[in-house]
Write a structure and sequence with these properties.
mainly alpha, 434 Repressor (Amino-terminal Domain)
Length: 394
Amino acid sequence: MHSLSHDHTGTRVKRLRLERHLTQKALSDLSLVPYGTLIKVEQGVTPATPYVIAALARALRVEVATVTGQPYVTELRADELDVLIRPIREALDLYDLGADPDVAPRADHLLAADAESLLVAVRAGEIKQVAGRLPGLLQEATTAAHAAPARERWLLLAGLYRTAYDVSSKLGYYDLAALSLARMDWAAERGSDAVFGAMYRYMRALTYLRAGEYRTGARLVDLGLRTLAQSEPSREREVVTGQLHLGAAVLAGRSKDGDRAEGHLGEAERIADSTGEAVTVHWLTFGPTNVAVHRVSVLAELDEYGQAAQSGRGLNIPADWPRSRRSHHHAELARAQLWTGDLDGSFQNLLHARKAAPQQARYHQTVRETYAGLEAARRQLPDSFMSYGSWLGA
């Protein structure tokens, strides 16, 4: 059940509720979402927060993507992105078939350079470019690893599977994202790298964050931290450790555990003071800026929207920060400002999110939910607001 131009999360919730013969009161009781909030979400008056969406999806016994309408097939087709998904899926399926006799891999340093360029391009928001190049590179790297197994080759392949996860999750193909992570873990085990293993658990924890399974996500983070303890001390290990704490902070915030969220933020901040800005270490963008950005996200998850908006406004994002992360931050800030009633500020941050990484913003669920909330108050906004909706396909 995917999004249509006249759809929004509330209409899909109502449709699913009626299919299950549930009253609004019954769904409110099952999901623990306040009755008044549910009514406003269904009417499109109030945007659905990630916490509310996950709670409703669990109560309705459907995937979160069914409630959000992802992937946004109509827009993906218009952008000619949908045709790029199947080749990625097919390349992932080749993982255990051994070396392909019809594929002649290039030298390792050339494959590694191409793999690194894809990581850079994803973070620049160039999703279509990456999706087009990824399948062929995956086939080369898979054959290279099987033809002459070596630690570096397995880790190169693990990195490409990580890129497949990035592309799939940004476009809303969460089943493909989960498959990509399984492949990443498979290759990382063959490369015997504890840091890669911890990164896999961090990314897997994010899938449970989206699904509203916060306890499982937290367990994965703890497992990732224990995995890192097996590796030699290094700046790389510290960066991934700090990123795990940031993921744990968001999980705790989404589950409304403010004390635990603050504890993880504090630990991440301590590590960031030591590592400094580490934008290119595994392209996790870890550092003091990312800690501050995550603080905005955590405050929003705790429904402290005023504090989130205030913290976000005071942030100075470095010029070398990846455009994808910049765009995501503007989307989060727009959500917080919407809830504080700062409609103009919220819309301006949606525009900033689009400018930073247009391909990502177009398929970003927070962007769409925030736009839906602003749409209810569109008469107070400039004419450019409606053109933004046309661009989204809303």
